[in-house]
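Section 5.1 Outputs to date
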Amino acid sequence: MNPVEIIIRKRNRTALTEEEIKFFVNGYLSGEIPDYQMSAFLMSVYFNGMSDEETVALTRTMLFSGEVLDLSHIDGLKVDKHSTGGVGDKTSLVIAPIAAAAGVIVPMISGRALGHTGGTLDKLESIPGFRTDLSKDEFIKTLEKIGVCLIGQTKEIAPADKKIYALRDVTGTVESIPLICASIMSKKLAEGINGLVLDVKTGSGAFMKTLKDSEILAVNLKNISEAFGVKTIAYITNMNQPLGNYVGNWLEVYESVEILKNKVHNELTELCHLLAGTMIYLGGKASSLDEGYSISKQMIESGRAYQKFLEIVEAQNGDVTFIENTEKYAEPKFKFVVKSNRNGFVSRMNTFEIGMLGIELGAGRMKYTDAIDPKAGFIFYKKIGDEVKIGDVIAEIRTDKDQQNYFTQKLLKAIDITDTKPDDEPLVYKTI
């Protein structure tokens, strides 16, 4: 086969065969096909899209470019969750221990923060000693022992995705539905799962800003997952404001622990019960979604989910004393209070801008090599729909950088306060 001919066929909107896709991807992974040809191929896909058959073929090729975990020797159904990411999205830290406490096996391979979105691995690594770089054997042993483990992508899993994603990142080809779907699903399917919950975000802090685009992505992800025999339920959820009240790596661990201790009940808690309940249902531990939701609440109320989280931290070398006594954690050098400069209602939060400001505080990264300050972030005391008066504290900024005026003014610009109360927005727009 000739790589140039395959590029031309895709450029001319001709559907490719599975053999052609396999040849191209495997050739790129081996080094026979150079970056410039893969870049041309990716741009052709970006502009012309792929059929469902092509997307499944691309996913299958990327999936089998590495190892697919065999967890069949572990009793029970294996279920994971994937979120398309946002600001303050810490659900994995809560739902993994809930589902595992209910008896579901949870093999969770997670990502890092990049751009305005946070990453589960960085949040977990803010716990002193916590290891997310477990080998495949350590991952399986932890699953055998406690039924849940959260790690990063290992070198054995979907190496083609790792190489192609790095190229997409620098060639303007990230926002392509077929490429997004193949990237996500090649990693998720490699976990050897039976069920998958998809949390597709929509709104100002989401990858997909509109409900229409989010729905297209959710349907495509679900179709691919089910083409591989994985039972899948997708939710389209609200990312027009940060999820929960805490944003930043350690701050999000803190809020997750408070939920697991049954001390916090907000929209984040609600979403966690929905997602965990769905995992419990797909894991065969509930006969309906409603029963799954109810079991999820029981896991929190009984303390079993919190105990499971302590087990996770201990099994992955983290210092559990920081979870048992969160006050022990180091404080940032500065805590800047942000006050309202007018009366009214919080009507809009530019979640993307809040996420980008988080990077400037030290809470995120613009490239994978950037260091992260786990203490940096925000605490929000007012959210969309809340009434504020002049001088009311809207938020607190935590950072080691002495730039109070710059940070507070930038955060105030990302929050609109108007005379009229905005209409309530749903937490969940749609179930697919």
